Protein backbone atom coordinates (compact mmCIF):
# COMPACT_ATOMS: atom_id res chain seq x y z
CA UNK A 1 0.00 0.00 0.00
CA UNK A 2 1.35 3.40 -0.75
CA UNK A 3 1.87 6.14 1.79
CA UNK A 4 -0.22 8.60 -0.17
CA UNK A 5 -3.20 8.32 2.09
CA UNK A 6 -1.34 9.33 5.20
CA UNK A 7 1.40 11.65 4.06
CA UNK A 8 0.30 15.21 3.40
CA UNK A 9 1.53 16.43 0.05
CA UNK A 10 1.85 20.05 0.98
CA UNK A 11 4.85 20.11 3.33
CA UNK A 12 7.95 19.15 1.44
CA UNK A 13 10.45 19.81 4.21
CA UNK A 14 10.26 18.08 7.54
CA UNK A 15 12.76 18.70 10.30
CA UNK A 16 13.01 16.06 12.96
CA UNK A 17 15.10 16.00 16.02
CA UNK A 18 15.38 12.59 17.60
CA UNK A 19 17.97 10.36 19.14
CA UNK A 20 17.28 7.54 16.70
CA UNK A 21 15.61 7.39 13.33
CA UNK A 22 13.77 4.25 12.34
CA UNK A 23 13.97 3.72 8.60
CA UNK A 24 11.05 2.04 6.93
CA UNK A 25 10.46 1.49 3.24
CA UNK A 26 8.09 4.15 1.94
CA UNK A 27 6.30 1.73 -0.36
CA UNK A 28 4.93 -1.42 1.15
CA UNK A 29 3.81 -4.08 -1.31
CA UNK A 30 1.07 -6.20 0.20
CA UNK A 31 0.10 -9.48 -1.39
CA UNK A 32 -2.76 -8.29 -3.54
CA UNK A 33 -5.32 -9.39 -6.07
CA UNK A 34 -3.80 -9.29 -9.53
CA UNK A 35 -6.54 -10.51 -11.82
CA UNK A 36 -5.97 -11.34 -15.46
CA UNK A 37 -3.11 -9.00 -16.19
CA UNK A 38 0.65 -9.06 -15.68
CA UNK A 39 2.21 -7.19 -12.83
CA UNK A 40 3.49 -3.74 -13.59
CA UNK A 41 4.58 -0.99 -11.24
CA UNK A 42 3.78 2.63 -11.83
CA UNK A 43 5.09 5.45 -9.72
CA UNK A 44 3.05 8.59 -9.33
CA UNK A 45 5.54 9.96 -6.85
CA UNK A 46 7.31 13.20 -6.34
CA UNK A 47 10.48 13.98 -4.43
CA UNK A 48 10.20 15.18 -0.87
CA UNK A 49 13.33 16.35 0.87
CA UNK A 50 13.46 15.74 4.62
CA UNK A 51 16.13 17.14 6.90
CA UNK A 52 16.71 15.01 9.97
CA UNK A 53 18.71 16.27 12.91
CA UNK A 54 20.56 13.40 14.62
CA UNK A 55 21.59 14.16 18.19
CA UNK A 56 22.41 10.69 19.55
CA UNK A 57 21.44 11.95 22.94
CA UNK A 58 24.19 14.58 22.89
CA UNK A 59 23.84 18.34 23.21
CA UNK A 60 21.71 19.81 20.42
CA UNK A 61 24.53 22.28 19.55
CA UNK A 62 26.61 19.30 18.36
CA UNK A 63 23.89 17.72 16.22
CA UNK A 64 24.43 16.88 12.56
CA UNK A 65 21.87 17.03 9.76
CA UNK A 66 21.07 14.17 7.40
CA UNK A 67 19.26 15.00 4.16
CA UNK A 68 16.94 12.27 2.95
CA UNK A 69 15.22 12.36 -0.43
CA UNK A 70 12.09 10.20 -0.39
CA UNK A 71 9.36 9.45 -2.89
CA UNK A 72 5.94 10.37 -1.48
CA UNK A 73 2.80 10.02 -3.58
CA UNK A 74 0.09 12.60 -3.67
CA UNK A 75 -3.16 11.58 -5.32
CA UNK A 76 -5.74 13.65 -7.15
CA UNK A 77 -8.84 11.61 -7.91
CA UNK A 78 -11.42 12.80 -10.43
CA UNK A 79 -14.82 11.21 -9.77
CA UNK A 80 -17.20 11.32 -12.72
CA UNK A 81 -20.75 11.24 -11.37
CA UNK A 82 -19.53 12.14 -7.88
CA UNK A 83 -22.95 13.53 -6.93
CA UNK A 84 -24.69 10.17 -7.45
CA UNK A 85 -25.24 7.28 -5.05
CA UNK A 86 -21.99 5.40 -5.71
CA UNK A 87 -20.02 8.50 -6.74
CA UNK A 88 -20.70 10.36 -3.50
CA UNK A 89 -19.57 7.33 -1.46
CA UNK A 90 -16.34 7.31 -3.50
CA UNK A 91 -15.80 11.04 -2.85
CA UNK A 92 -16.44 10.58 0.88
CA UNK A 93 -14.05 7.61 1.15
CA UNK A 94 -11.35 9.44 -0.80
CA UNK A 95 -11.62 12.53 1.42
CA UNK A 96 -11.34 10.30 4.51
CA UNK A 97 -8.06 8.92 3.12
CA UNK A 98 -6.59 12.39 2.53
CA UNK A 99 -6.94 12.22 -1.27
CA UNK A 100 -7.65 15.40 -3.22
CA UNK A 101 -11.04 14.94 -4.93
CA UNK A 102 -12.70 16.64 -7.89
CA UNK A 103 -16.21 15.60 -8.93
CA UNK A 104 -17.83 16.21 -12.29
CA UNK A 105 -21.58 15.82 -12.78
CA UNK A 106 -24.28 17.88 -14.45
CA UNK A 107 -25.89 18.79 -11.13
CA UNK A 108 -22.61 19.70 -9.41
CA UNK A 109 -22.58 19.83 -5.62
CA UNK A 110 -25.14 17.46 -4.04
CA UNK A 111 -27.48 18.59 -1.27
CA UNK A 112 -25.73 16.68 1.51
CA UNK A 113 -24.92 18.51 4.72
CA UNK A 114 -21.91 16.51 5.90
CA UNK A 115 -18.46 17.97 6.51
CA UNK A 116 -16.61 15.90 3.87
CA UNK A 117 -18.71 17.60 1.15
CA UNK A 118 -16.79 20.85 1.69
CA UNK A 119 -13.52 19.08 0.93
CA UNK A 120 -14.52 18.07 -2.61
CA UNK A 121 -14.27 20.40 -5.62
CA UNK A 122 -17.69 20.03 -7.21
CA UNK A 123 -17.63 20.94 -10.89
CA UNK A 124 -20.96 21.14 -12.69
CA UNK A 125 -20.64 19.82 -16.23
CA UNK A 126 -21.46 17.13 -18.75
CA UNK A 127 -18.89 14.47 -19.66
CA UNK A 128 -19.66 15.10 -23.34
CA UNK A 129 -18.88 18.83 -23.14
CA UNK A 130 -16.38 18.92 -20.30
CA UNK A 131 -13.49 21.35 -20.09
CA UNK A 132 -10.94 18.59 -19.46
CA UNK A 133 -8.12 21.11 -18.95
CA UNK A 134 -9.83 22.23 -15.78
CA UNK A 135 -10.58 18.69 -14.63
CA UNK A 136 -7.83 16.30 -15.65
CA UNK A 137 -4.57 18.22 -15.44
CA UNK A 138 -2.64 16.81 -12.49
CA UNK A 139 -5.10 13.95 -11.93
CA UNK A 140 -3.54 10.65 -10.85
CA UNK A 141 -6.74 8.64 -11.32
CA UNK A 142 -10.24 8.91 -12.75
CA UNK A 143 -13.12 6.88 -11.30
CA UNK A 144 -16.31 6.82 -13.33
CA UNK A 145 -19.65 6.20 -11.64
CA UNK A 146 -21.51 7.49 -14.69
CA UNK A 147 -24.17 5.06 -15.81
CA UNK A 148 -27.85 4.31 -15.48
CA UNK A 149 -31.09 3.41 -17.18
CA UNK A 150 -33.47 4.89 -19.78
CA UNK A 151 -34.54 4.14 -23.32
CA UNK A 152 -32.26 2.30 -25.74
CA UNK A 153 -30.58 5.51 -26.88
CA UNK A 154 -30.02 6.71 -23.31
CA UNK A 155 -28.68 3.32 -22.23
CA UNK A 156 -26.01 3.52 -24.94
CA UNK A 157 -25.22 7.15 -24.33
CA UNK A 158 -24.82 7.08 -20.55
CA UNK A 159 -23.32 3.61 -20.02
CA UNK A 160 -21.12 3.38 -23.07
CA UNK A 161 -20.50 6.64 -24.95
CA UNK A 162 -20.09 8.86 -21.87
CA UNK A 163 -17.52 6.50 -20.40
CA UNK A 164 -15.70 6.04 -23.70
CA UNK A 165 -15.46 9.84 -24.01
CA UNK A 166 -14.06 10.00 -20.47
CA UNK A 167 -11.51 7.20 -20.98
CA UNK A 168 -10.35 8.81 -24.22
CA UNK A 169 -9.87 12.17 -22.51
CA UNK A 170 -8.13 10.65 -19.48
CA UNK A 171 -5.67 8.84 -21.72
CA UNK A 172 -5.02 11.97 -23.80
CA UNK A 173 -4.26 13.93 -20.64
CA UNK A 174 -1.88 11.25 -19.39
CA UNK A 175 -3.91 10.23 -16.34
CA UNK A 176 -2.23 6.99 -15.23
CA UNK A 177 -5.26 5.11 -13.90
CA UNK A 178 -8.93 4.70 -14.87
CA UNK A 179 -11.48 2.93 -12.69
CA UNK A 180 -14.91 2.06 -14.07
CA UNK A 181 -17.94 1.06 -12.01
CA UNK A 182 -19.55 -1.53 -14.24
CA UNK A 183 -21.94 -4.35 -13.40
CA UNK A 184 -22.01 -8.09 -12.70
CA UNK A 185 -23.54 -10.21 -15.47
CA UNK A 186 -25.80 -12.13 -13.04
CA UNK A 187 -25.02 -15.35 -14.83
CA UNK A 188 -27.69 -14.39 -17.34
CA UNK A 189 -28.28 -16.44 -20.46
CA UNK A 190 -26.51 -15.02 -23.54
CA UNK A 191 -29.62 -13.49 -25.14
CA UNK A 192 -30.14 -11.32 -22.03
CA UNK A 193 -26.47 -10.45 -21.72
CA UNK A 194 -26.74 -9.10 -25.25
CA UNK A 195 -29.33 -6.53 -24.16
CA UNK A 196 -28.42 -2.88 -24.73
CA UNK A 197 -27.59 -2.26 -21.05
CA UNK A 198 -25.03 -5.06 -20.74
CA UNK A 199 -23.62 -4.50 -24.22
CA UNK A 200 -23.09 -0.82 -23.42
CA UNK A 201 -21.37 -1.68 -20.12
CA UNK A 202 -19.06 -4.20 -21.79
CA UNK A 203 -18.15 -1.70 -24.55
CA UNK A 204 -17.07 0.81 -21.93
CA UNK A 205 -15.09 -1.93 -20.15
CA UNK A 206 -13.31 -2.86 -23.40
CA UNK A 207 -12.32 0.74 -23.92
CA UNK A 208 -10.84 0.96 -20.42
CA UNK A 209 -8.94 -2.30 -20.81
CA UNK A 210 -7.61 -1.44 -24.26
CA UNK A 211 -6.46 2.07 -23.28
CA UNK A 212 -5.30 1.04 -19.81
CA UNK A 213 -4.15 -2.58 -20.24
CA UNK A 214 -1.89 -2.56 -17.19
CA UNK A 215 -3.62 -0.11 -14.88
CA UNK A 216 -7.34 -0.01 -15.77
CA UNK A 217 -9.75 -1.31 -13.13
CA UNK A 218 -13.26 -2.61 -13.79
CA UNK A 219 -15.44 -3.19 -10.74
CA UNK A 220 -18.48 -5.38 -11.38
CA UNK A 221 -20.88 -5.15 -8.43
CA UNK A 222 -24.36 -6.60 -8.19
CA UNK A 223 -27.08 -4.66 -6.39
CA UNK A 224 -25.39 -1.88 -4.40
CA UNK A 225 -26.95 -1.02 -1.06
CA UNK A 226 -26.61 1.90 1.33
CA UNK A 227 -28.54 5.12 1.84
CA UNK A 228 -29.59 6.45 -1.56
CA UNK A 229 -30.70 10.09 -1.64
CA UNK A 230 -33.49 10.96 -4.05
CA UNK A 231 -34.85 14.54 -4.14
CA UNK A 232 -33.71 15.25 -0.58
CA UNK A 233 -35.14 11.98 0.78
CA UNK A 234 -33.06 9.05 1.95
CA UNK A 235 -34.00 5.56 0.80
CA UNK A 236 -32.46 3.03 3.22
CA UNK A 237 -31.51 0.29 0.74
CA UNK A 238 -29.32 -1.17 3.48
CA UNK A 239 -32.45 -2.39 5.31
CA UNK A 240 -32.81 -4.92 2.49
CA UNK A 241 -29.23 -5.26 1.27
CA UNK A 242 -27.46 -5.92 4.54
CA UNK A 243 -29.64 -8.82 5.79
CA UNK A 244 -29.76 -10.22 2.27
CA UNK A 245 -25.96 -10.25 2.13
CA UNK A 246 -25.78 -11.96 5.55
CA UNK A 247 -28.35 -14.64 4.66
CA UNK A 248 -26.54 -15.42 1.40
CA UNK A 249 -23.23 -15.68 3.20
CA UNK A 250 -24.72 -18.04 5.83
CA UNK A 251 -26.38 -20.26 3.21
CA UNK A 252 -23.54 -20.21 0.67
CA UNK A 253 -22.85 -23.95 1.00
CA UNK A 254 -26.46 -24.80 0.18
CA UNK A 255 -26.87 -22.38 -2.72
CA UNK A 256 -23.50 -23.08 -4.41
CA UNK A 257 -24.75 -26.23 -6.23
CA UNK A 258 -27.41 -24.05 -7.88
CA UNK A 259 -24.91 -21.57 -9.29
CA UNK A 260 -24.79 -23.30 -12.66
CA UNK A 261 -28.46 -22.45 -13.30
CA UNK A 262 -28.89 -19.55 -15.74
CA UNK A 263 -29.67 -16.26 -13.98
CA UNK A 264 -29.20 -17.90 -10.55
CA UNK A 265 -27.08 -14.91 -9.53
CA UNK A 266 -30.19 -12.72 -9.60
CA UNK A 267 -31.06 -14.50 -6.35
CA UNK A 268 -27.78 -15.83 -5.06
CA UNK A 269 -25.09 -13.25 -5.90
CA UNK A 270 -24.36 -11.14 -2.83
CA UNK A 271 -25.28 -7.46 -2.86
CA UNK A 272 -22.44 -5.00 -2.25
CA UNK A 273 -22.30 -2.32 0.42
CA UNK A 274 -21.78 1.08 -1.23
CA UNK A 275 -18.99 1.89 1.25
CA UNK A 276 -17.15 -1.33 0.34
CA UNK A 277 -17.45 -0.46 -3.34
CA UNK A 278 -16.03 2.99 -2.59
CA UNK A 279 -13.14 1.49 -0.60
CA UNK A 280 -12.37 -0.87 -3.49
CA UNK A 281 -12.00 2.26 -5.63
CA UNK A 282 -9.62 3.76 -3.05
CA UNK A 283 -7.65 0.53 -3.08
CA UNK A 284 -7.38 0.80 -6.87
CA UNK A 285 -6.28 4.44 -6.65
CA UNK A 286 -3.53 3.74 -4.15
CA UNK A 287 -2.29 0.34 -5.26
CA UNK A 288 -0.35 0.12 -8.52
CA UNK A 289 -0.64 -3.66 -8.49
CA UNK A 290 -4.42 -3.59 -8.67
CA UNK A 291 -5.80 -3.71 -12.19
CA UNK A 292 -8.10 -5.83 -14.33
CA UNK A 293 -11.66 -7.02 -13.79
CA UNK A 294 -12.95 -7.40 -10.23
CA UNK A 295 -15.88 -9.62 -9.29
CA UNK A 296 -18.05 -9.28 -6.18
CA UNK A 297 -15.75 -11.20 -3.83
CA UNK A 298 -12.68 -9.42 -5.18
CA UNK A 299 -14.35 -6.04 -4.64
CA UNK A 300 -15.01 -6.99 -1.01
CA UNK A 301 -11.44 -8.23 -0.58
CA UNK A 302 -10.01 -5.03 -2.07
CA UNK A 303 -12.19 -3.02 0.33
CA UNK A 304 -10.89 -5.03 3.29
CA UNK A 305 -7.33 -4.22 2.30
CA UNK A 306 -7.84 -0.50 2.85
CA UNK A 307 -10.26 -0.64 5.81
CA UNK A 308 -8.57 0.64 8.94
N1 LIG B 1 -26.78 1.34 -7.78
C1 LIG B 1 -26.62 0.05 -8.04
O1 LIG B 1 -27.24 -0.83 -7.40
C2 LIG B 1 -25.65 -0.38 -9.10
C3 LIG B 1 -25.42 -1.75 -9.29
C4 LIG B 1 -24.49 -2.14 -10.24
C5 LIG B 1 -23.84 -1.20 -11.02
N2 LIG B 1 -24.10 0.11 -10.82
C6 LIG B 1 -23.41 1.09 -11.67
O2 LIG B 1 -22.74 2.02 -10.84
C7 LIG B 1 -22.72 3.30 -11.47
C8 LIG B 1 -23.27 4.35 -10.51
O3 LIG B 1 -24.59 4.01 -10.17
P1 LIG B 1 -25.46 4.94 -9.21
O4 LIG B 1 -26.50 4.07 -8.64
O5 LIG B 1 -24.56 5.71 -8.31
O6 LIG B 1 -26.11 5.94 -10.26
P2 LIG B 1 -26.61 7.45 -10.00
O7 LIG B 1 -26.93 7.67 -8.57
O8 LIG B 1 -27.68 7.70 -11.00
O9 LIG B 1 -25.34 8.31 -10.37
C9 LIG B 1 -24.93 8.55 -11.69
C10 LIG B 1 -24.08 9.81 -11.69
O10 LIG B 1 -23.64 10.08 -13.03
C11 LIG B 1 -23.85 11.46 -13.31
N3 LIG B 1 -24.02 11.62 -14.75
C12 LIG B 1 -24.89 11.01 -15.58
N4 LIG B 1 -24.72 11.42 -16.85
C13 LIG B 1 -23.70 12.30 -16.83
C14 LIG B 1 -23.04 13.08 -17.82
N5 LIG B 1 -23.39 13.01 -19.12
N6 LIG B 1 -22.04 13.91 -17.46
C15 LIG B 1 -21.68 13.99 -16.14
N7 LIG B 1 -22.25 13.27 -15.17
C16 LIG B 1 -23.26 12.44 -15.50
C17 LIG B 1 -25.12 11.81 -12.51
O11 LIG B 1 -25.21 13.16 -12.16
P3 LIG B 1 -26.03 14.24 -13.03
O12 LIG B 1 -27.30 13.60 -13.45
O13 LIG B 1 -26.16 15.39 -12.12
O14 LIG B 1 -25.12 14.50 -14.17
C18 LIG B 1 -24.83 11.04 -11.21
O15 LIG B 1 -23.97 11.80 -10.39
C19 LIG B 1 -23.53 3.15 -12.75
O16 LIG B 1 -22.67 2.92 -13.83
C20 LIG B 1 -24.37 1.93 -12.49
O17 LIG B 1 -24.72 1.25 -13.68
C21 LIG B 1 -24.99 0.56 -9.89
Automatic annotation (TrEMBL):
Q: Which residues form the NAD(P)-binding domain?
A: 81-223
Q: Which Gene3D superfamilies does the record match to this protein?
A: NAD(P)-binding Rossmann-like Domain
Q: Which GO terms describe its biological process?
A: ubiquinone biosynthetic process
| One CC-aspect GO term | mitochondrion
Q: Which GO terms describe its molecular function?
A: protein-containing complex binding
Protein name, as recorded: Uncharacterized protein At1g32220, chloroplastic
Please name the gene that encodes this protein. LOC110791561
